[in-house]
Amino acid sequence: MPVPDSTRHARDAAEAIGARFDDLDGGEGYLFRISREGRFVLGGGGNVCAYPVNSAPAYTISRDKAHTKAVLTAVGIKVIPGSLWFAHTRRAALRGPGREAGDAAAFAQRRGYPVFCKPNTGSRGTFAEIVRSPADLDDYIQRLAVDFESFLIEPVLDGEEHRVFVLDGRPVFHSTKSAPSLIGDGRSSVAQLLAALNSTLQLEGVSALPASALAGRDLAATPSAGEHIALPGRRNLSAQGSIEAVSEHVPPQLAAPAIAAAAALGLRASAVDMFDLSPARDLSDIVVIEVNGNPGLRTLELAGRSDLIRAIWVHMLNACLNA
Ligand SMILES: Nc1ncnc2c1ncn2[C@@H]1O[C@H](COP(=O)(O)OP(=O)(O)O)[C@@H](O)[C@H]1O
Ligand SMILES: [Mg+2]
């Protein structure tokens, strides 16, 4: 069984700086301890925030997308407008009225479909979906409620997607993301290709894409071999999206909002996701999608930039282990 990426990266950096790495999870790698000369840090995979330099308040606030929007808005950073709704009535006594599923449906009806919905504490693109009708919203809320308590309704934006990784105020790398697609094999129908993608996603713990993601397509048609059928919506690598480019040269128009967003949240290490909404795609209209306080670094691995992964981890471990 493969150990989590963060554990591999931490172990590699620990070896590079002469620190001791101990697996505390029977070899599965979901919990570890790194120590040197009487100082230590704990870390892990899964739900553990692997980045030892990030404080618990900063990380937990960044996990909450509504809170993140509030923090960034307060310092003048542009975010996607979004409203918070609850998928079930658990803990309803702890909040004011007007925020339940029925209120969400009325809100979406007023602002008009399609809307973009995502769980407030989601990650890896799970349940980040374009919702096109009242019936689709009902279906969305029912599927979401199994795993999540609340969700955001946002406008559907069409922009070029960028990520900037920021470490202690410095932009480390920039990457762009493109939408996932189904690729025809000349034999399988669109419905079969979607089912195959969804079974891959399910094994990785990411929500399946509903057939409504292919609105307007004939699900019974058989695309020819090599034909790409774009899947609009989430572009997360974890949701089979693809990386277009990785570079250490971070355009200043992206570095500035990314550094400001990381600072506003108090995250020492973070990946800031942004859309460029400018019609010319000249980076003149940047909006922050979200800030990740525990970002995966698979992008760098796929780009052959293990050197950057090691540099990030060595910097963090030295920051925590130096007396
Ligand atoms: N309002 C939106 N309009 C269009 N696409 C969006 C919107 N918000 C998010 N996305 C897409 O969905 C992906 C996942 O959303 P995000 O807020 O980053 O949640 P997660 O924590 O699951 O990554 C984004 O990377 C982007 O591709
Ligand atoms: Mg994201």
Structural description of this entry:
With 323 residues, this protein is α+β, with helices and mostly antiparallel strands. The protein has 4 domains: 5-54 and 301-321, no CATH class; 55-80 and 159-179 and 237-293, D-amino Acid Aminotransferase, Chain A, domain 1, CATH 3.30.470; 81-156, ATP-grasp fold, A domain (Dna Ligase, domain 1); 180-231, no CATH class. Helix content is 32%, strand content 24%. The protein contains 9 helices and 14 strands. It has helices at 5-16, 56-63, 65-74, 101-111, 134-145, 190-203, 252-265, 298-302, 306-321, and strands at 20-23, 31-36, 39-44, 83-86, 115-119, 129-131, 150-154, 160-167, 170-178, 181-183, 228-230, 242-247, 269-276, 286-292. Strands 12-9-8-13-14 form a 5-stranded antiparallel beta sheet. It has a 4-stranded antiparallel beta sheet with strand order 4-7-5-6, covered by helices on one side. A 3-stranded antiparallel beta sheet has the order 1-2-3, covered by helices on one side. Strand 1 and strand 2 form a beta hairpin. The longest helix has 16 residues, at 306-321. The mean pLDDT is 95. The structure holds adenosine-5'-diphosphate and magnesium ion. Adenosine-5'-diphosphate (ADP) binds next to strand 5 and strand 14.
Task: Supply database-style keywords.
four-stranded antiparallel beta sheet, D-amino Acid Aminotransferase, Chain A, domain 1, globular, 4 domains, alpha+beta, binds adenosine-5'-diphosphate, 323 residues, 9 helices, binds magnesium ion, five-stranded antiparallel beta sheet, Dna Ligase, domain 1
